[in-house]
Amino acid sequence: MKNNVSRRAAAAFAVLCLSACAHNPAPPPAKSITAGPQSSQSASITNLPPDVLATCQHITVEATAGHIADAARVANECLASHSLPVAVRVGVLQQLTFLDMALHDDRAALDTQLAAIELTPKPTDLQLLLLSRLYRSNQRNDESLATLNRVRDAHEVAHDMDRVLGMPYYQELGSTLAAMGRHQDAIDAFTKGIPLEPALADAYRRRAIEREATGDTTGARADYVRFARWEIDRNIDVPTRAKLTSLGIDPASERRYPFGDTNPLHAVAVQQLENAQQALKSAATTQAKAEAYSNISIFSDGLDRNAQALTAIDEAIALAPDTTSYKQSKVTTLVGLNHIDAAIALAAPMRKQVRDEAAMSATPSAVYGKYVEVSGSAALAYMQQKNWADAIEALVDTARGSAAFDQDYMASLYLYVRARSAGAAPVNAYFEDYIRRASQPVFGNYRRWLLLYLQGRVTIDQVYVQVISIGNTVAIQNALAETWFMAAGYERYVKHNDAAARAYVERLNDLQPYGTNEWMMAKRGGV
Question: Is 503 exposed, middle or buried (0-12, 13-18, 19+ CB in 10 A)?
Fold first, then answer.
C-alpha cells in the first residue's frame, strides 16, 4: 500500500452542520445528556434528581426516533427544572437550538441560542457562527455581520481563521453579505472559502446566485455545473433543479466526473515523478540516488506505470540492498504488475521478520509500523489468490502498525473479505473486537463511516457527506475511490444486487483514481 494520501478532517460536527447542511438544514444526532468523563457536565449530572435526569435523557430518545417536536417539548420540560447545573443547561439549550431549526422555528432557535451564549463566559467560534446564521434567518443582517466580525477579530492576531474555522466562516460571511445585497463582497467571501472545502456543493450554488446578480451568467453557469457535480441528488430542491434544467445541466451526467476534465491523483503523481527524476539528476551520493530511484518507483506506480516502477525500485535496491523499505516497495510494485506469486515470495521473509521482532519488542506496534507497506500489499496479493485466511492475517499486521484512521479501513477490508468469501474467511478476534469498540461515528473521519456502512448501520450518502468535507482534492478523489469500491462490494457480496454493484464500479471507472488499490482490485474483478 504505497500511495498514502494525507487528509484534513473536518474540524467538528458543528462545523459539518454549518457547512454541509447549509442548504438543507437538518437536526444533528442529539447527544445524550449523559456526558463522558472529560465533560464539564459529568460531575453535575450525578447530582440531578432522578426524575429530572430521566426527562433530560429522553430528549435523545425522541430525537433519535425522529420525533423532533416531541424532543423539543421534552427539552423545554428539562430546562424548566431549577436544579440544572449551568453546564448541563447550556448543553440542553444547544440541543434545543438545533431542534427548533429542524422545526423551522427560527425565532425560537435564535432566542434559545442567545440564552445558551448568555450562560457561556467565552462562547466558542461555532456557537457564534450558529448565532450569526440565526440572526440572518431572522432578517437581522447587521447583527449577523457584527457577530461574524467578532469571530474574525478573535483570530486577527494569530491569523489562523482558515486553519481553525475554514469554509464555515466564509460560508456564513458570504451568505450574510448576500442577504445585505453586497453581491461582489459575497462572491469574494465564497471564493476565499471554496479552496478550503472544494467539494462543498452549496458554496458553488450560493456563489452562482450572486454571480447572476452581478450579470456574470458565464461564471454562474460554471458554478451551477460544479454544484451539480457534488450535490447529493435528493438534496437538490425543485427551484434549483429547474434552474439546472434551464441551463442544460444534467446532475446525473455531471456527477460521473466530479473533477471535470482534471484528475488530481494523476496530476500530483506526474508532478512528483518529475521532481524525483530531477532529484536523480542532481543526486551526488549513493544514498541520494537510491532514494530518487525509490521515489521514481513510487510515483510511477501512482501513474500505473508499474513496469517503469519495477525497473526503478530494482535500481534503488542495487544501490542500497539492506534498505527494507525498498524491498517493501518492490512487493507493492509486483502486486501492481499482477505478479502475485513473486510478490508473496518476496514478502514472506519480511512478514516473518516483523512477527519475530514484534514478539521481542516492548512496543510491538512500532515494529508493525515499520512494515505496514509489505503487510498491506501482501494482504492484497492474498485476496487475489482468494487465500482469505492469510489475507486477514496480513490485514491484522497492517492494522497493528497503523493509526486509528487506517485501522478503520483495515477493519472495513476485513468485512469486505468476509463478505466476498461468502463466509469461508475465518472470523478474526482482533478485528471483531476492534469493530465492537469502533461502534460510534466520528465526524470528519469518512473511514469510520465506511466501516459502519459495511455493517448496514449508515447509508452511503452519509459516508459521502464525510468525504466531501475533506479540504484537499487529491484526498477527496482517494476517498471516493475507497467509497465506491466498498459500496460496490457491499452491494454485490452482502445485498446481492449486481446492478447496483455495477453502477458503483462505473462510478469508480469514471473517477479514474490512478494509483489506488481500489481501482486496481476493481479492474481485476474484486467487485
Answer: middle
